[in-house]
Amino acid sequence: MIQQRGNFDWMLKELYDGVPGIEMIVVLSADGLRIARYAGDPDAADRVAAACAGLQSLAGAVAQEIPDSDGRMKLVIIEIDGGYFYLMAAGANAYLAVLSDIVCEPGLMSNRMRDLVARIGPHLTSPARHSGQTV
Fold first, then answer.
1. Which pTM does this prediction carry?
2. Pairwise CA distance, residues 2 & 42, whole Å
3. Does the record's keyword annotation contain Transmembrane (predicted)?
């Protein structure tokens, strides 16, 4: 059930066990590479991570149009037929993504994700990459 780079299992399992309806949790780098996952298919987790890179970029572009915004994306929630998608900034160059079924309550999920990021955000980081190389 767990695929990881680093020791994220206990962090992600705690979120998974604490919120009913979670289908998959993915930790990803800003450039869309999967760092870790809990539950779900590994190939699907890679696709979600890649899609999140574009989504966080789009959200940042929209945020720049809001007066007094620093232009950084904090949280995106998308309601989909049959469930929800959540993407939250989680440390330097890292994001936390969650897919859930319709049973999941969005307020509870976003609060639990915020709590997790506040507690362990420094561990959810990804070094910047240039030309495919870690800097």
1. 0.84
2. 9
3. yes
How many helical (H) and strand (E) elements, i.e. helices and strands, does the chain have? 3, 8
Cβ atoms within 10 A of the Cβ of 132, count? Answer: 6
pLDDT in tens, 58-74: 888 888 899 988 878 88
HSE-up of residue 98 (Cα within 13 Å, Cβ side): 33
pLDDT, tens only, 83-102:
999 999 988 888 999 999 99
Please tell me the distance from the alpha carbon of residue 63 to that of residue 102, in angstroms, as a whole number: 27
Whole-angstrom CA distances from 100 to 25, 69, 106, 126 are: 9, 29, 9, 24
Say how many C-beta atoms besides its own lie within 10 A of residue 119's C-beta.
11
The residue among 76, 134, 107, 100 whose CA lies nearest residue 25 is 100
Reported CATH class of domain 2-128: alpha beta
CA–CA distance, 102 with 79 (Å, rounded to integer): 9
d(CA 28, CA 97): 8
